[in-house]
Specification:
heterotrimer; A alpha/beta; B alpha/beta; C mainly alpha; B: alpha/beta; globular; C: mainly alpha; MetI-like fold; 79% helix; binds adenosine-5'-triphosphate; binds iron/sulfur cluster; binds magnesium ion
Chain lengths: 339, 314, 314
């Protein structure tokens, strides 16, 4: 991990500098122990989130977004070996016992999944799942928990909340399921919400509704939010900051406006050019050549080098995440950072 | 106009028992053009594609392909006609036979339709691989040895093996990562330019449809509510649903995001009058009682909404 | 819920009647005169004729069938030929033993199966897991009677913890009852418990990978609750299904076990009744076993409906 050379305060970009830092992730790494030894999945991830701020974690399938989230929540697979420091509300939590980590879940951190159909229990009622959480975390009585659950469902825009509490996940539409998931995540008053592709499985009109709701919740409860997505257009609308991952690495980090409009890392630039944008009248897209190398087959040096048009001999050595223009990028030959 | 019409669909409907999956859909695709279908999940896009391919029988309506009415064809003639109409699906895992090498995958459609000698078939297979930018060495490998994007390339090569007049592509890039999606979209456009293939292209991604299609049909609850040339649909959408769909798309700043209320109703219980009225921000009394008819907006654009009554055809 | 159970009951009816009709036909249509066979060589013609009238064998077959059906519906199966008393008085004396044996065996199998399966899944690939899996494979491959003899030899003959054979009804006191039922029930249940162990292990491992388990953890619920309530609830369902099949299997297996342990149960009664050609008693025995099986299966359906709300609405 000698590559972590830049002791930049990760929050130097924050647009809300007066707010206290809720989550600080410093040099997080994660490997999975298997028969052949340790398989690195994520290396050197650092970022921080202030109160009321949304930070996007962007990248293509398999780059390690979900597993990073699970490491922060303390629910990574059993065979995971985790390094680095995770600080929540000023307290280092990465060194806590699994038991103490679990106590932070729900109460201090809430989690929202991509697929609410499978993320909610199929044969326990919505109400049971919500009241279990409320009773365990807040010590409410059954009646108190039921009332609070109904209020929460009401708050996230679910009509007939009392009836829905008695119902099951398969009876709800996709948008309603995700609303239930959001109600569950915020139910115990966490200061941090981790949302793992919360709108990817939804239609655009429903996606817009759910994003609105998440934004409302964020404002109302002053939540810090880690928003995982692969859609850069959502990032620009929804998040103050963005962290771009590629093959287990953070390759670019900065204000989302800068990352989306003027990225300096060739991969981030490539991601933006690859999307057919509205109204640009292009007849050809600019794809990134090749495919993402699978875990365990990362090249030495810069992991993007085999697909990078700017790669040269220097890229055989691993670059560090350093400030270039408006953003931090892990690249020897960063782009100008102009559109 | 001298352009030849390759596919023409007239009043196509399909019900699965009480579910009205597709209702009275009509469109035509001229030779070498791409017609796109967009709409939310369950709006009937895939069912329309399967109807066009006659993988399911229509409840009513006519499909004419290359001037022949597909509905009237015998099973044998239909099989012969399939040579000219190939398909690409969303899931490159499911649509390729895992036990068939790439060579067999590319040779089989030619065998089925009796195209060429074995030597020629193999040659075609090699040429197709080159066209989709895959190495020759891929011939002897099996689908599971390839990434999602590569599998979709193989599926495209297979669709081209019979040199079809038309390709029906149902969400061909939805399962792919953006960087790979761009490769496949470019490939499809290049091939279309080179071969003049006509295409029915389905996607729920408005950006992808805009990139790929010349003409677009917007589907809601089994109906096409608006259709027209790409630039009209994206530049001057006439139907409230099209407007909402475009405004819902991310990338405009959250303040601009449209707030369409509610969710698409079940296809079991299509609302009376205008099917969109339960979510339409402009709905008024007439929308409940009277079904709006398709109105010509000029420039090839058509939309079905009472608000457009009296709009002069520009 | 009631409608669901009603539907399940209708589905179960054939499992009661098919074996009965088979027995009916077998007795009536087999060559030879059943009355003569029942009474043996020494019987006089008058005795045989009297028995034929008593059994209704002198009537046409459809009348016999209707009489037989009436007998079943009114639970009047006539007199046992050997015991010379109503079948319906004899059956309860034997049925209690068999039902107890099956219930205790089923309970043992489920408890052992779920505990071992859970233990194994929670210690995946550790020595405990390997031990359980190996034992389960052994358990499945051992036939019941083998295991019964082994149990008798070890616990009754050598250690003298239990009586070698015989039966005390529950009315004789719990300890006395348990001491005579435990070994037979264990012998009957062991194979099924091995099956259930394997089922429980694999379904638990599947469920632990489900996103809703991750959600429960991410909500801060303690691991004991996550496993014991959230995971168990879904993981137990395949075991319940297996338990239904096991119940039927155990009722069949009870015959051998009752004979080995000299238990006065239905199985032994049936074997003896068949040997004595006591057909009314045979019919009564088959009817009882089918009924017990039906009730057990309904109970399983009920448990299933409680565990999985989705099926109540189908
Ligand atoms: N339990 C596990 N065992 C082995 N490998 C795993 C496990 N979980 C994740 N991985 C691997 O770790 C890598 C990162 O996975 P992760 O789920 O974090 O990706 P992601 O960025 O969330 O992708 P997606 O956009 O597809 O959700 C992947 O290559 C995946 O195959
Ligand atoms: N074989 C079938 N039997 C019954 N209903 C069907 C069948 N196929 C489709 N439907 C129904 O028809 C409607 C339209 O489905 P279709 O798959 O065409 O939608 P779609 O626009 O392709 O949606 P998606 O974006 O989810 O693929 C849906 O309500 C669906 O449930
Ligand atoms: S370090 Fe080199 S290979 Fe890597 S992104 Fe930068 S220029 Fe490309
Ligand atoms: S007809 Fe009425 S409900 Fe339908 S789109 Fe037009 S205004 Fe809206
Ligand atoms: Mg993920
Ligand atoms: Mg579809």
């Amino acid at each position: 991990m000698s590559a972590h050379l830049t002791p930049l305060p990760a929050d130097h970009l924050s647009p809300v500098p007066q707010a206290p830092t809720v989550l600080d992730v410093d040099n997080l790494s994660l490997s999975l122990r298997n028969a052949d030894g340790l398989l690195p999945i994520v290396t050197d991830v650092s970022f921080s989130i202030r109160q009321g701020e949304a930070v996007a974690l962007v990248g293509e399938s398999g780059c390690g977004k979900s597993i990073t989230a699970s490491a922060i929540m303390g629910i990574a697979p059993e065979n995971a070996v985790i390094g680095g420091t995770i600080t929540l509300n000023g307290k280092v939590i990465s060194s806590l016992s699994p038991r103490d980590r679990r106590r932070l879940c729900g109460r201090h951190m809430g989690f929202i999944f991509q697929e609410p159909m499978t993320a909610l229990h199929p044969t326990l009622s919505i109400g049971r799942q919500m009241t279990d959480t409320l009773r365990h975390n807040l010590g409410l009585s059954h009646a108190e928990a039921t009332n609070r659950a109904a209020e929460l469902l009401d708050r996230v825009g679910i009509p007939r909340a009392r009836d829905i509490l008695k119902g099951y996940v398969h009876e709800l539409s996709g948008g309603m399921r995700q609303r239930v998931m959001i109600a569950l995540a915020i139910s115990c008053g966490p200061s941090l919400i981790i949302a793992d592709e919360p709108t990817t499985a939804l239609d655009v009109t429903i996606q817009a509704q759910v994003l609105d709701l998440l934004e409302d919740m964020r404002r109302e409860f002053n939540l810090a939010m880690l928003f995982i997505t692969h859609d850069l257009e959502v990032v620009g609308d929804f998040c103050e900051k963005a962290v771009v991952m590629y093959a287990g690495d953070v390759v670019e980090r900065g204000l989302s406006a800068d990352v989306v409009n003027a990225p300096t890392h060739p991969y981030a630039r490539g991601l933006i050019d690859a999307v057919p944008a509205h109204d640009d009248g292009r007849t050809r897209l600019t794809p990134i050549l090749g495919t993402v190398p699978p875990v365990g087959q990362w090249p030495e040096g810069c992991r993007f080098a085999p697909r990078c048009t700017r790669a040269d001999a220097q890229c055989q050595t691993r670059p560090a995440l350093e400030r270039h223009g408006q953003t931090d990028a892990r690249c020897w030959h960063p782009l100008e950072g102009i559109q | 106009m001298t352009t030849q019409t390759v596919l023409s669909v007239e009043g196509l409907s399909k019900s699965f028992r009480a579910v009205k999956a597709v209702r009275d859909v009509s469109f035509t695709i001229p030779k070498g053009k791409t017609f796109g279908l967009v709409g939310e999940s369950g709006s009937g896009k895939s069912t329309t594609a399967r109807l066009v391919l006659r993988l399911v029988e229509p409840t009513s309506g006519a499909i004419s392909f290359r001037g022949r009415n597909l509905a009237g064809l015998s099973a044998r003639d239909l099989r012969a006609e399939r040579r000219h109409m190939q398909m690409i699906f969303q899931d490159p895992f499911g649509s390729l036979n895992p036990r068939m090498s790439v060579r067999d995958t590319l040779v089989e459609p030619q065998l089925v339709h009796g195209i060429g000698t074995p030597a020629e078939q193999l040659k075609t297979a090699e040429r197709l691989l080159a066209e989709v930018s895959m190495p020759r060495t891929a011939l002897d490998r099996y689908p599971h040895e390839f990434s999602g994007g590569q599998r979709q390339r193989i599926a495209i090569a297979r669709a081209l093996a019979t040199n079809p007049e038309m390709i029906v592509a149902d969400e061909p890039v939805s399962a792919l990562d953006v960087s790979v999606q761009a490769q496949v979209l470019n490939l499809m456009r290049d091939l279309q330019d080179r071969h003049g293939t006509t295409m029915l292209f389905i996607s729920h991604d408005l950006r992808v449809v805009q990139f790929m299609c010349d003409e677009i049909g917007v589907m809601y609850l089994g109906e096409i509510v608006e259709q027209g040339p790409r630039d009209r649909i994206y530049g001057a959408p006439a139907h409230p649903y099209t407007q909402a769909l475009l405004a819902s798309a991310p990338g405009k700043g959250s303040g601009q995001r449209a707030r369409l209320k509610g969710e698409i109703p079940s296809a079991h219980a299509v609302p009376s009058g205008c099917a969109f009225r339960t979510r339409c921000p402009h709905a008024f009394a007439r929308c409940t009682t009277e079904k709006p008819v398709m109105r010509d907006m000029g420039g090839g654009q058509k939309a079905a909404c009472h608000l457009l009554d009296g709009t002069p055809a520009a | 819920m009631l409608r669901y159970l009603g539907k399940r009951f209708l589905l179960i009816l054939p499992t009661i009647f098919v074996p009965l009709i088979l027995v009916f036909l077998l007795l009536r249509l087999s060559p030879g005169d059943p009355a003569g066979m029942m009474l043996g060589d020494q019987a006089t013609a008058e005795q045989i004729a009297a028995l034929r009238t008593q059994l209704g064998l002198d009537q046409p077959i459809w009348v016999q069938f209707l009489l037989w059906l009436k007998g079943i519906v009114t639970l009047d199966l006539g007199n046992s030929i050997f015991f010379r008393e109503p079948v319906m008085q004899i059956i309860p004396r034997y049925a209690g033993v068999t039902i107890m044996l099956t219930l205790v065996a089923l309970t043992l199998a489920v408890v052992i199966g779920i505990t071992m399966g859970l233990l194994s899944a929670m210690n995946r690939n550790k020595p405990i897991d390997r031990g359980v899996v190996t034992t389960a494979v052994l358990g499945i491959s051992l036939p019941e009677f083998w295991f019964a003899l082994l149990l008798i030899f070890v616990f009754a003959v050598t250690l003298r913890w239990f009586p070698v054979a015989g039966y005390n009804p529950p009315s004789a006191g719990l300890v006395a009852f348990a001491s005579t039922i435990f070994l037979p029930a264990l012998a009957l249940g062991v194979r099924q418990s091995a099956l259930m162990t394997r089922m429980m292990r694999s379904s638990m491992l599947d469920v632990l990978n489900e996103p809703y388990i991750t959600t429960a953890r991410a909500q801060g619920l303690p691991e004991s609750k996550v496993i014991g309530q959230y995971a168990m609830r879904t993981a137990a369902m395949p075991v319940v299904t297996v338990a239904g099949l096991s119940a039927g299997y155990m009722l069949g297996g009870a015959v051998a076990i009752e004979i080995i342990f000299a238990l006065p149960g239905l199985g032994r009664m049936l074997v003896e009744a068949v040997g004595r050609r006591d057909y009314p008693l045979v019919e009564g025995g088959v009817l009882t076993i089918s009924l017990v099986l039906a009730v057990l299966n309904l109970a399983i359906d009920l448990i299933y409906a409680i565990l999985d709300p989705r099926i109540r609405y189908q």
